[in-house]
Write a structure and sequence with these properties.
It contains eight helices and eight strands; from the N terminus they run βαβαβαβαββαβαβαα. By secondary structure, it is of the alpha/beta class. It has an eight-stranded parallel beta sheet. The protein binds D-xylitol-5-phosphate and zinc ion (ZN).
Protein backbone atom coordinates (compact mmCIF):
# COMPACT_ATOMS: atom_id res chain seq x y z
CA UNK A 1 0.00 0.00 0.00
CA UNK A 2 1.22 3.47 -0.85
CA UNK A 3 0.75 5.73 2.18
CA UNK A 4 0.48 9.50 1.76
CA UNK A 5 0.14 11.31 5.11
CA UNK A 6 -1.71 14.61 4.80
CA UNK A 7 0.32 17.51 6.18
CA UNK A 8 -2.96 19.43 6.66
CA UNK A 9 -3.12 17.83 10.11
CA UNK A 10 0.49 18.58 11.08
CA UNK A 11 1.76 21.28 13.45
CA UNK A 12 2.36 24.23 11.12
CA UNK A 13 4.37 26.03 13.79
CA UNK A 14 6.94 23.29 13.34
CA UNK A 15 6.67 22.51 9.66
CA UNK A 16 10.37 21.72 9.25
CA UNK A 17 10.30 19.21 12.12
CA UNK A 18 7.03 17.66 10.91
CA UNK A 19 8.30 17.35 7.32
CA UNK A 20 11.55 15.74 8.47
CA UNK A 21 9.59 13.31 10.64
CA UNK A 22 7.60 12.24 7.57
CA UNK A 23 10.76 12.16 5.47
CA UNK A 24 12.33 9.70 7.94
CA UNK A 25 9.14 7.60 8.17
CA UNK A 26 7.94 4.75 5.94
CA UNK A 27 5.54 7.15 4.18
CA UNK A 28 5.79 6.89 0.39
CA UNK A 29 4.42 10.31 -0.46
CA UNK A 30 3.52 13.55 1.33
CA UNK A 31 -0.06 14.65 0.65
CA UNK A 32 -0.39 18.43 0.31
CA UNK A 33 -3.91 19.90 0.42
CA UNK A 34 -4.26 23.30 -1.26
CA UNK A 35 -7.63 25.02 -0.63
CA UNK A 36 -8.76 28.39 -1.96
CA UNK A 37 -11.91 29.27 0.02
CA UNK A 38 -13.85 29.17 -3.24
CA UNK A 39 -13.96 25.61 -4.54
CA UNK A 40 -14.12 24.47 -0.90
CA UNK A 41 -15.25 26.40 2.20
CA UNK A 42 -11.78 26.53 3.73
CA UNK A 43 -8.38 28.10 2.99
CA UNK A 44 -5.23 26.11 3.72
CA UNK A 45 -1.97 27.33 2.17
CA UNK A 46 -0.28 27.91 -1.15
CA UNK A 47 3.06 28.20 -2.95
CA UNK A 48 5.37 29.46 -0.15
CA UNK A 49 4.36 26.65 2.21
CA UNK A 50 4.71 24.03 -0.51
CA UNK A 51 8.20 25.37 -1.28
CA UNK A 52 9.11 25.22 2.41
CA UNK A 53 7.96 21.60 2.65
CA UNK A 54 9.83 20.59 -0.50
CA UNK A 55 13.08 21.93 0.98
CA UNK A 56 12.98 19.36 3.78
CA UNK A 57 12.06 16.14 1.98
CA UNK A 58 13.04 14.06 -1.01
CA UNK A 59 9.75 12.17 -0.97
CA UNK A 60 7.14 12.45 -3.69
CA UNK A 61 4.96 15.52 -3.21
CA UNK A 62 1.38 14.47 -3.85
CA UNK A 63 -0.42 17.78 -4.32
CA UNK A 64 -4.23 17.85 -4.12
CA UNK A 65 -5.69 21.07 -5.51
CA UNK A 66 -9.07 21.98 -4.05
CA UNK A 67 -9.17 25.23 -6.00
CA UNK A 68 -11.26 26.73 -8.78
CA UNK A 69 -9.59 27.01 -12.19
CA UNK A 70 -6.60 24.82 -11.27
CA UNK A 71 -5.45 24.90 -14.89
CA UNK A 72 -4.26 28.48 -14.32
CA UNK A 73 -1.61 27.41 -11.78
CA UNK A 74 0.00 24.28 -13.24
CA UNK A 75 3.35 25.92 -14.05
CA UNK A 76 3.64 27.44 -10.56
CA UNK A 77 3.00 24.11 -8.84
CA UNK A 78 5.61 22.44 -11.04
CA UNK A 79 8.10 25.15 -10.04
CA UNK A 80 7.29 24.58 -6.34
CA UNK A 81 8.31 20.92 -6.58
CA UNK A 82 5.00 19.08 -7.01
CA UNK A 83 5.51 15.55 -8.36
CA UNK A 84 1.87 14.50 -8.60
CA UNK A 85 -0.71 17.20 -9.36
CA UNK A 86 -4.34 16.26 -8.78
CA UNK A 87 -7.17 18.52 -9.90
CA UNK A 88 -10.87 18.13 -9.19
CA UNK A 89 -13.11 16.90 -12.00
CA UNK A 90 -15.73 19.37 -10.73
CA UNK A 91 -13.32 22.33 -11.04
CA UNK A 92 -12.19 21.76 -14.64
CA UNK A 93 -14.14 22.79 -17.72
CA UNK A 94 -11.26 21.69 -19.98
CA UNK A 95 -10.04 18.68 -18.08
CA UNK A 96 -8.24 17.06 -21.01
CA UNK A 97 -6.22 20.21 -21.66
CA UNK A 98 -5.31 20.57 -17.99
CA UNK A 99 -4.18 16.92 -17.75
CA UNK A 100 -1.95 17.30 -20.82
CA UNK A 101 -0.52 20.53 -19.37
CA UNK A 102 0.34 18.79 -16.06
CA UNK A 103 2.09 15.95 -17.91
CA UNK A 104 3.99 18.36 -20.17
CA UNK A 105 5.58 19.82 -17.02
CA UNK A 106 6.92 16.37 -16.04
CA UNK A 107 4.40 15.75 -13.25
CA UNK A 108 2.05 12.83 -12.82
CA UNK A 109 -1.56 13.83 -13.46
CA UNK A 110 -4.44 12.98 -11.15
CA UNK A 111 -8.16 13.68 -11.08
CA UNK A 112 -10.15 13.84 -7.83
CA UNK A 113 -13.84 13.01 -7.59
CA UNK A 114 -16.17 14.51 -4.99
CA UNK A 115 -18.40 12.03 -3.17
CA UNK A 116 -21.39 12.77 -5.44
CA UNK A 117 -19.48 12.39 -8.71
CA UNK A 118 -19.69 8.93 -10.31
CA UNK A 119 -16.61 7.16 -11.59
CA UNK A 120 -18.26 6.86 -15.02
CA UNK A 121 -17.46 10.54 -15.85
CA UNK A 122 -13.84 9.43 -16.33
CA UNK A 123 -14.60 6.90 -19.09
CA UNK A 124 -13.12 9.02 -21.90
CA UNK A 125 -10.08 10.30 -19.98
CA UNK A 126 -9.00 7.36 -17.85
CA UNK A 127 -6.30 6.31 -20.35
CA UNK A 128 -4.62 9.72 -19.97
CA UNK A 129 -4.47 9.67 -16.18
CA UNK A 130 -1.77 8.50 -13.79
CA UNK A 131 -3.99 8.62 -10.70
CA UNK A 132 -7.60 8.96 -9.60
CA UNK A 133 -8.31 10.32 -6.12
CA UNK A 134 -11.64 9.22 -4.68
CA UNK A 135 -12.81 11.64 -1.99
CA UNK A 136 -14.33 9.67 0.87
CA UNK A 137 -15.37 12.88 2.66
CA UNK A 138 -16.54 16.23 1.27
CA UNK A 139 -13.30 18.09 0.57
CA UNK A 140 -12.33 21.04 2.75
CA UNK A 141 -11.49 19.72 6.20
CA UNK A 142 -9.53 17.01 7.95
CA UNK A 143 -11.04 14.81 10.63
CA UNK A 144 -14.39 14.05 8.98
CA UNK A 145 -16.28 10.78 8.99
CA UNK A 146 -15.61 8.30 6.19
CA UNK A 147 -18.45 7.93 3.65
CA UNK A 148 -18.98 4.17 3.40
CA UNK A 149 -20.19 4.14 -0.21
CA UNK A 150 -16.65 5.18 -1.25
CA UNK A 151 -15.64 1.52 -1.01
CA UNK A 152 -18.02 0.67 -3.89
CA UNK A 153 -16.54 3.52 -5.91
CA UNK A 154 -13.13 1.88 -5.61
CA UNK A 155 -14.61 -1.32 -7.03
CA UNK A 156 -16.25 0.58 -9.94
CA UNK A 157 -13.05 2.49 -10.66
CA UNK A 158 -11.00 -0.69 -10.68
CA UNK A 159 -13.42 -2.20 -13.21
CA UNK A 160 -13.21 0.90 -15.41
CA UNK A 161 -9.40 0.87 -15.31
CA UNK A 162 -9.29 -2.84 -16.21
CA UNK A 163 -11.87 -2.49 -18.99
CA UNK A 164 -9.76 0.25 -20.61
CA UNK A 165 -6.48 -1.58 -19.92
CA UNK A 166 -5.26 1.62 -18.27
CA UNK A 167 -2.46 1.99 -15.74
CA UNK A 168 -3.87 4.23 -13.02
CA UNK A 169 -3.25 4.47 -9.29
CA UNK A 170 -6.40 4.40 -7.13
CA UNK A 171 -5.94 6.77 -4.18
CA UNK A 172 -8.50 7.48 -1.41
CA UNK A 173 -8.69 10.59 0.74
CA UNK A 174 -10.75 11.28 3.85
CA UNK A 175 -11.56 9.44 7.06
CA UNK A 176 -8.93 6.77 6.48
CA UNK A 177 -7.91 4.69 9.49
CA UNK A 178 -6.96 1.03 9.92
CA UNK A 179 -10.57 -0.12 9.71
CA UNK A 180 -11.66 1.89 6.65
CA UNK A 181 -8.19 1.39 5.14
CA UNK A 182 -8.59 -2.40 5.26
CA UNK A 183 -11.93 -2.22 3.42
CA UNK A 184 -10.37 0.06 0.81
CA UNK A 185 -7.38 -2.20 0.38
CA UNK A 186 -9.64 -5.23 -0.11
CA UNK A 187 -11.64 -3.27 -2.70
CA UNK A 188 -8.48 -2.53 -4.74
CA UNK A 189 -7.10 0.80 -3.49
CA UNK A 190 -3.39 1.37 -4.18
CA UNK A 191 -2.79 4.51 -2.12
CA UNK A 192 -4.26 5.88 1.12
CA UNK A 193 -4.18 9.47 2.34
CA UNK A 194 -4.41 9.85 6.11
CA UNK A 195 -4.30 13.11 8.05
CA UNK A 196 -5.87 13.17 11.50
CA UNK A 197 -5.44 9.42 12.00
CA UNK A 198 -1.67 9.78 11.61
CA UNK A 199 -1.08 13.08 13.38
CA UNK A 200 -3.48 12.49 16.29
CA UNK A 201 -1.90 9.14 17.09
CA UNK A 202 0.73 8.67 19.82
CA UNK A 203 3.31 7.69 17.22
CA UNK A 204 2.72 8.99 13.69
CA UNK A 205 5.61 6.90 12.35
CA UNK A 206 4.18 3.66 13.82
CA UNK A 207 0.74 4.53 12.47
CA UNK A 208 2.21 5.05 9.00
CA UNK A 209 3.86 1.61 9.22
CA UNK A 210 0.56 0.00 10.16
CA UNK A 211 -1.21 1.63 7.24
CA UNK A 212 1.53 0.42 4.93
CA UNK A 213 0.80 -3.17 5.92
CA UNK A 214 -2.85 -3.01 4.81
C1 LIG B 1 -9.77 16.94 2.94
C2 LIG B 1 -8.37 16.72 2.47
C3 LIG B 1 -7.73 15.57 3.10
C4 LIG B 1 -7.59 15.65 4.60
C5 LIG B 1 -7.83 14.27 5.10
O1 LIG B 1 -10.41 17.84 2.14
O2 LIG B 1 -8.34 16.50 1.08
O3 LIG B 1 -6.49 15.23 2.50
O4 LIG B 1 -6.34 16.12 5.04
O5 LIG B 1 -7.91 14.31 6.47
P1 LIG B 1 -8.39 13.06 7.33
O6 LIG B 1 -7.46 11.92 7.03
O7 LIG B 1 -8.28 13.56 8.73
O8 LIG B 1 -9.82 12.75 6.91
ZN1 LIG C 1 -6.45 15.74 0.17
Amino acid sequence: MIVSPSVLSCDFGNIERETKMLDDSKADWLHIDVMDGNFVPNISFGFPVLKAISKHTDKTLDVHLMISNPGNYVDEFADCGANILTVHYEACVHLHRTIQHIKSKGMKAGVALNPHTPVSVLEEIIGDLDLVLIMSVNPGFGGQKFIDSSVNKVVSLKKLIESKKANVIIEIDGGVNLETGKKLSDAGANALVAGSFVFNSDSPTNTIEKLKQL
